[in-house]
Write a structure and sequence with these properties.
Blueprint lengths: L14 E2 L2 H13 L4 H19 L4 E6 L3 H15 L3 E6 L8 H8 L5 E3 L10 E5 L11 H12 L7 E5 L21 E5 L4 H4 L3 H4 L2 E5 L7 H5 L3 E3 L2 H4 L17 E5 L7 H12 L4 E6 L4 H5 L6 E4 L3 H8 L4 E6 L7 H13 L2 E4 L2 H4 L5 H8 L7 E3 L3 H7 L7 H12 L2 E4 L5 E3 L5 E3 L12 H14 L4 H19 L7 H15 L3
């Protein structure tokens, strides 16, 4: 189980459920005495209320599928009609083929049911998409795919608004992947807990506004389901936030070490070092090749500087156990020297962040890195690859992003930060956190170096690796959002104090 689940119950609201886990939550609640049709009625009511709150009166088309998602649609259609809306229901299949609660829901719709055609939705103010839910396991085909393609292809000015029930039809709730084609929703109402597909790309881009509705599922079912994926947010890791006390001093807050590249590639290390300092490290030192010392010295003030010629020198530096966290990679160069530095640092037992060139340097022999990480002396280790670096280091790991991040963490023995607009933090025991607060403004040179520094600074303060990675990624996203379009990497460390103030003030 994930360590953060020891946090207050508010953290459980951040759990992400797979389609199978959501089905289990439904089944357990029903077994405890709540009829399934009551849950369906509540779901349909949540959809109807969300629509009534956002749209003026006008014609509504409700697209119902053959399963429980379609049942939710029948309920929403009935409730909107009772409130005076003009509602038409289109069904994929026959009413006589509906089963269980969906059949019961259809019986409450005392009006004609039209067959689903590719032209459904013409003339409607908005469409309720209740075709397929989060458990879709096959590509859309036939009429459903034709309809989705037609609606997505309409100019925005001519297209009715689309409200999806649970998840846009055609989207996998487990992976965020499109199954053949998927509706581009303006509003999505989901139930009890979000699904990974609501946060992972391209799913997040297709959901529009996301509403999470309570439909009466027992909260206690989470203890049996034991979710292993969570949305990244402060409630998840609040207890791990470093909060310096009045009687602290710089050595208590840790000493972070960042290795630099040569004279023409020193900037990345300095960005990371400033990130570590702003994240709260008591001291930060850049370990510089001797021929780059003067270049680094010209740009550093509060960041300390020391010459470091090779792996032996790095080992010597790390003999001082006050230097308790080390970052290797940004601008270091790909090759034997970087590999030797990584292995030497891992042998020291310091907490480690390996990024950029430190990862690519092991592309031809990743097992050497993984053996060193899982060795007796290695301290907590975090790898921070983007997709290209990930593929070089884990060429045989396949599947969706969430699956790959988890498998890479298991294979390497390290916490994996698979960077992107939907960054995933995965631990070797299978737990994962999906980050959703990062915007496109962070897609700029040096941004990843600063992120590595944020994580390093948290590690130096004693934050456990998994939580340090999650906090660092969230702080990085929040810093980017506070600056907006036009930021450069140098801006990110400087805005972090304001982000810290906001985060700590929110605690009350």
């Amino acid at each position: 189980m994930m360590r953060v689940m020891a946090t207050p119950p508010t953290a459980t609201s951040l759990a992400l459920l797979t389609a199978a886990q959501m089905s289990s939550a439904d089944a357990q609640t029903i077994a405890r005495g709540t009829p399934g049709i009551v849950l369906m009625e509540n779901a349909g009511r949540a959809v109807a209320e969300a629509c009534a709150a956002r749209f003026p009166r006008g014609p509504v088309d409700v697209l119902c599928g053959p399963g429980n998602n379609g049942g939710d649609g029948f309920i929403a259609a009935r409730l909107l009609r009772e409130q005076g809306w003009s509602v038409t229901v289109h069904l994929l299949g026959e009413v006589s083929d509906l089963k269980g609660d969906a059949a019961m829901a259809a019986e409450t719709w005392a009006a004609p049911v039209e067959p689903l055609t590719p032209q459904a939705g013409e003339g409607a103010l908005f469409i309720i998409d209740a075709l397929f839910g989060a458990g879709l396991s096959r590509d859309l085909t036939g009429t459903a795919r034709e309809l989705v393609g037609r609606l997505n292809g309409l100019p925005r000015a001519r297209r009715p608004a689309i409200v999806s029930v649970d998840i846009p039809s055609g989207l996998s709730g487990d992976t965020g992947e499109v199954r053949g084609d998927a509706l581009e929703a303006d509003l999505t109402i989901t139930f009890f807990r979000k699904k990974p597909g609501h946060l992972l790309l391209p799913g997040r881009l297709l959901c529009g506004e996301l509403v999470l509705a309570d439909i009466g599922i027992d909260e206690d079912v989470l203890a049996d389901i034991a979710p292993a994926a969570f949305e990244n947010a402060p409630a998840l890791w609040d207890q791990f936030l470093p909060r310096p006390q009045l009687d602290t001093h710089k050595f208590v807050r840790g000493h972070a070490l960042v290795t630099s590249g040569g004279p023409s590639s020193t900037g990345a290390a300095r960005l990371a070092a400033r990130g570590a300092a702003r994240a709260g490290a008591g001291l930060v030192t850049v370990a510089s090749p001797p021929n780059a010392v003067l270049v680094n010295a010209a740009h550093l003030t509060s960041i300390m500087l020391t010459p470091c010629a090779n792996a032996d020198a790095l080992s010597k530096l790390l003999e001082d156990k006050r230097k308790n966290a080390c970052l290797i990679g940004p601008g270091n160069g790909v090759g034997q020297g970087t590999r030797e530095n990584v292995l030497a640092a891992l042998l020291s037992g310091a907490s480690m962040v390996l990024d950029a060139d430190a990862l690519t340097s092991f592309a031809e022999n990743p097992r050497d890195l993984f053996v060193a990480i899982t060795g007796y002396f290695a301290g907590p280790t975090i790898l921070t690859p983007h997709e290209g670096e990930f593929k070089r280091l884990f060429p045989n790991v396949k599947g969706d992003r969430l699956t790959r991040a988890r498998e890479a963490a298991r294979e390497s023995g390290a916490v994996i930060v698979l960077k992107g607009p939907d960054t995933i933090i995965a631990s070797p025991d299978g737990d994962a956190i999906i980050n959703a607060n990062a915007g496109p403004e962070l897609a700029t040179a040096g941004s990843g170096d600063v992120l590595a520094g944020f994580i390093l600074g948290l590690l130096s303060q004693g934050v456990p690796a998994f939580e340090a990675a999650a906090i660092g990624v969230w702080l990085h996203g929040a810093a980017g959002a506070s600056l907006g379009h036009g930021l450069i990497a140098e801006d990110l460390p400087d805005v972090l104090p304001a982000v810290w103030r906001g985060l700590l003030a929110a605690e009350g």
